[in-house]
Write a structure and sequence with these properties.
- The chain is an all-alpha fold.
- It has a domain of 210 residues.
- Helices cover 73% and strands 1% of the residues.
- Strands 1-2 form a two-stranded antiparallel ribbon.
- The radius of gyration is 23 Å and the shape is globular.
- Keywords: Cell membrane, Membrane, Transmembrane, Transmembrane helix.
């Protein structure tokens, strides 16, 4: 007959110890704040963003506009990489297509809002055509194809000198129409705010809807998704083209903000910063694009004050740290920190009686 000693009983009932690394790498559900807090944050953020360009100097408006531009790119790239599982290192190419589309259409006399439609349409068509053969590739092969796009973009701009003016660059008058009583920076700010708000809502809708579930199904179990009736190839191609639209519109806003672009604006470093954006912000999360955009806009500004090469080193170190230790990005960290306090707040929550 065997007996169980008290020491053995304690060993069996003691919960496993959680280390800091376990906490950092733990997946977490989205926060579920009460309805009153959602409305407070939403209305407060909207009011602050609408008032911001009217009370701040132009350089602050420009940096916040850049944050919104990077957010649009991050939303589209996160759809492709985070939800769709496709690797893309070449979204700077679509960003450049959108920028040059806006400049060329603007020089032809098209109004700015209409040029942004062109900036989305051109990358969509080209992205779809590229996606048809490229998305039959997988993993590293697709990454190399898109990397080649990013490397070739500045040379392609120079080669199309009759259209893009090559190394000389090309300028655009992005002042608002006469009937709009705003300065240039305020006008572009509101255009970027409208586009970023629309992109955020559309992305959130896609991520939570039937299309988002099909993206995740293709990412996680391609054969199972195909068995269930999902057209895997068409899903991938449309997702790739849709992601290109985000980058193109963001590129168009970038051209309107700077009023001058050249091939040096769209190098490989830009594509690397886009990848950094979604990794740091949080893959497969919609708010992660906003946090990642804040990172790529402000952290290089701080590091460049230390050294000219500090930005590249920072990107490399941060990418390795997040890949190894914080796989769910800043969104995962914030969820872990805020969830205990948010769950204690009183009030009705969506989905609960």
């Amino acid at each position: 007959m065997t007996t169980t000693t008290p020491v053995r009983t304690v060993e069996h009932t003691t919960p496993p110890r959680t280390t800091l690394l376990d906490w950092l790498r733990r997946p977490r559900a989205a926060l579920n704040p009460p309805v009153w807090l959602r409305w407070t944050i939403g209305l407060g953020s909207a009011a602050a963003l609408l008032a911001l360009p009217l009370v701040n100097p132009s350089y602050i408006n420009q940096t916040v506009t850049l944050v919104m531009i990077w957010t649009i790119v991050g939303l589209g790239l996160n759809l492709l990489v985070g939800f769709g599982g496709q690797v893309s290192l070449g979204h700077s190419a679509f960003f450049a297509m959108g920028a040059y589309s806006v400049v060329i259409a603007g020089q032809a006399g098209w109004p700015h809002p209409l040029t942004l439609v062109v900036a989305g349409a051109v990358p969509f068509v080209i992205g779809y055509l590229i996606g048809l053969p490229a998305l039959r590739l997988k993993g590293l092969q697709l990454g190399l194809v898109t990397l080649a796009m990013a490397i070739a973009t500045p040379s392609a701009i120079r080669a199309l000198g009759d259209l893009t003016r090559g190394n000389r660059g090309i300028a655009i008058d992005a002042d608002p129409p006469a009937w709009v009583a705003l300065e240039h920076d305020q006008w572009v700010f509101y255009l970027a705010l409208a586009c970023a708000g629309l992109a955020y809502l559309v992305t959130r809708r896609l991520a939570r809807g039937r299309l988002g579930r099909s993206f995740v199904a293709v990412r996680d179990a391609e054969l199972v998704a195909e068995t269930l009736g999902v057209d895997v190839w068409q899903t991938k191609t449309r997702l790739f083209a849709a992601s290109a639209v985000y980058a193109g519109v963001a590129g168009g806003l970038y051209a309107l903000l700077l009023e001058f672009i050249g091939p040096e604006n769209f190098g490989l470093a830009m594509s690397i910063s886009f990848v950094t954006l979604i990794v740091v912000g949080g893959l497969a999360t919609v708010p992660g694009a906003v946090l990642g955009a804040l990172f790529v806009q402000y952290v290089p500004t701080w590091t460049s004050a230390l050294s000219a090469s500090a930005t590249g080193v920072t990107y490399g170190v941060v990418l390795m740290v997040f890949a190894f230790f914080v796989p769910y990005g800043l969104v995962g960290l914030l969820r872990g920190i805020l969830a205990p306090a948010v769950d204690r707040l009183p009030g009705r929550r969506p989905g609960r009686a």
